[in-house]
Design brief:
The chain is of the alpha+beta class. Helix content is 37%, strand content 19%.
Length: 86
């Protein structure tokens, strides 16, 4: 898990460090640290969150292992499966 604020002091620095991580596949999912929700990087809900709450994951399993649940907007199938899981 990578905290967004750990990538730099301002948005420009964070963007320069984050882009290569996305392009190399080291980051494929984003999450909200306070709500414990993860989703795709292109999710509208995820784009609106504060940088201080944003975290990144390499895999879906990494997010699940960290205690995050799927987003109900961009990962609808996974979210429904999570709802019905025992």
């Amino acid at each position: 898990m990578i905290n967004h604020t750990d990538l730099g002091a301002n948005a420009e620095q964070r963007s320069k460090k984050l882009r290569p991580l996305i392009l190399t596949g080291q980051v494929t999912f984003g999450g909200n640290r306070q709500l414990k929700i993860y989703g795709t990087l292109s999710c509208r809900s995820g784009r609106r969150m504060k940088a201080a709450n944003r975290v990144f994951f390499a895999t879906e399993q990494e997010a699940v292992d960290a205690g995050y649940r799927p987003c109900g907007h961009c990962l609808r199938k996974e979210y429904k499966r999570w709802l019905t899981a025992p």
